[in-house]
């Protein structure tokens, strides 16, 4: 029997005996969360979609590795972190700058950009995109998904002390970046006046 | 309690993220109550946390495939019967559990699926017809060629074995070039494959096409190219339907 049929048959048998449809529901439920975090890491919708897909496929194939169902979320997020790490290694020198959405690379801004940047969402995303990747990952796992520090340490395979220091630095940096990216209001506001 | 200067950012972050023990928390709350600067630091951290949450509450282009609850409900009875049958099967096929568990330990990365793909064509097509979805996301011509080679081999083996199963190529990102009439180096080959194998389909990802168009690229697709709202949605749908997934 070929491995792929074995794999499929195995998945189906497991789904029948172990109620893997619960797994399927869990995958469906967790998908938007994975996407949100993947997007906050990459700031590229298509890439985030690909990363999530890859993570889910790997998770589906390796459901047997999950001994404790209570650890499902952390387990899937650790797969996502691995996918992101692999992607980052593979494309370190090949990333297309045009693909980096929300990253303020240009100094020339159109009125539309100015308007967009004045929006808090764009500003925060732009600031998060400028954080070093390690800090960005810790920050988003804690703030967006509410993972405890210990679980973040497990997902990213780093010591908990590193989680705390990265988080602290991330928030300090974020504060500075948000101030830098805040729209500057001119002190001299020109008013219309009636000229008769 | 420590003074404001001594209280580290790490400690305040732990407080904001609810990571402190009860004693530490009480002590810190007490300190915050008597220290305006400390209060300000905590407020600032909470504000940052709120802003990050707000910024990613609705990320763009999140096409999340959802399982329709009604459909799910309709299938639940069938699934229960299947489970019962499966339990009987377990008794009869007890010996197979060892094999199943050993199969579980096999790693199946995308790369490893390639030889799997070939093994399927050569040996086991007759055992059990299974549909395949092949995902191409790179514009690298070598990868595009590999995708077509593997798909064609599979279709050919399938034809010989007279076992009807479907093979679908879904292209996203740079892989959409495979299906662009003005760019694809394999337009003729795809047309020939299409004519030869009725069970072969190819789809382009709408998200990727929109992105190209946004960048000023005029996207003209090959005849008979289907469009899926999102490649990942299509793959997810097929996986749920029990198709096998191969990423090139």
Features:
heterodimer; A: 196 residues; mainly alpha; Butyryl-CoA Dehydrogenase, subunit A, domain 3; disordered N terminus; B: 248 residues; alpha/beta; Hypothetical Protein Ychn, Chain: A; five-stranded parallel beta sheet; 10 helices; 9% strand; elongated
Describe this structure in words.
By secondary structure, chain A is mainly α. Chain A has a single domain (3-91, 114-181), classed as PhyR, sigma-like (SL) domain (Butyryl-CoA Dehydrogenase, subunit A, domain 3). Chain A has helices at residues 3-18, 20-42, 45-61, 72-90, 111-118, 120-129, 133-143, 149-156, 160-181. In chain A, helix 2 (20-42) crosses helix 4, helix 6 crosses helix 9 and helix 8 packs across helix 9. Chain A is globular, with a radius of gyration of 22 Å. Chain B has 248 residues and is α/β, with parallel strands linked by helices. Chain B folds into 2 domains: 9-55, no CATH class; 108-247, Hypothetical Protein Ychn, Chain: A (3-Layer(aba) Sandwich). Helices cover 54% and strands 9% of the residues of chain B. A 5-stranded parallel sheet of chain B has the order 4-3-2-1-5, sandwiched between helices. In chain B, helix 1 (9-16) packs across helix 3 (36-55), helix 2 (22-34) crosses helix 3 (36-55) and helix 6 packs parallel to helix 7. The radius of gyration of chain B is 27 Å and the shape is elongated. Chain B starts with 8 loop residues before the first helix and ends with a strand. Classes of the chains: A mainly alpha (196), B alpha/beta (248). Chains A and B meet through helix 1, helix 2, helix 3, helix 6 and helix 7 of A and helix 1, helix 3, helix 4, helix 5 and helix 6 of B.
